[in-house]
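Sequence only, no structure available. Ideas?
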Amino acid sequence: MQRISLIGLILVPCFSILVFLGVQSLKASDVGRGKYKLTKQWQTKKELRIPESVLYDESRNILYVSNINGKPTEKNGQGFISKVSLGGKIEVLKWTTGLNAPKGSAFYGNKLYVSDIDQLIEIDLKAGKILAKYPAAGAKFLNDVVTDASGNVYVTDMSSENSVIYKLTQGDMTVWMKGTEIRNPNGLYMEEKRLLLGNSGDGSLKAINLADKKITTIARVGSGIDGLRSDGKGNYFISDWKGKTSLVTASGQIIVLIDTTASKINSADLEYIKSRKLLLIPTFFDNRVVAYKVEEMPLPKTGSGQAK
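Reply:
I predicted one. Tokens follow.
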């Protein structure tokens, strides 16, 4: 793991506070032969209620935020979805209501799919109304959600008792994958021919071939993987719910970008908007979404023209 370089004095006890208030940069890695600088852009008001995930809708230029509003496994009917602008304004706090503990979400067509403890919720994007509920037999803690190009929906159950990945196809919810390599599965990210998985049971980032379900390990992260997004260059942003946000490079290197664990500020199911280079982190118990601008900084040249 590479060391983190902060602008200004490096004060380890104050690391989390400095990062959250300002800017941090990283030493060079194999990420574009440069370094990333993260600059805080905005944060929502603390009006959200345990925000677990954030999802960007490009066609409507809006963010959807899942609010648990209770305990993560509590069926209280108080969970809801919020709409937040790209500038951090909460446009509609309770856009879709009547959920229990909504977590991961994904789009397909004009529908939003959200996990809700033991069922997958289908929501009309135009009206915000619940269209259908799909029970997942045996599920205890449904978490992240993705869709593929055909409209199939995948959702993880990260409970120790179940530890499976479900698949919804034409209204039929079945177990798509389980086994010794799938333990406490959480974060998901869909690519053209493979499904990326944050496997919290062994702290690994894995890839599952959609055709034959063959599993390969991309990196040994050593912690839980809640949020999972591509940077568009072969690298992945990941978050550990406890408060750490990192980058997994194409070569499997792990670079910590933000660590707010000491400040007890969580880093839940994040989003990355490539076109805007904006990293969005829901802070769970801290009740905010915080946005960072991601910039790749060129390395300084030496006299020989080579970067250090």
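The first helix runs from residue 15 to 21.
Hope that gets you unstuck.
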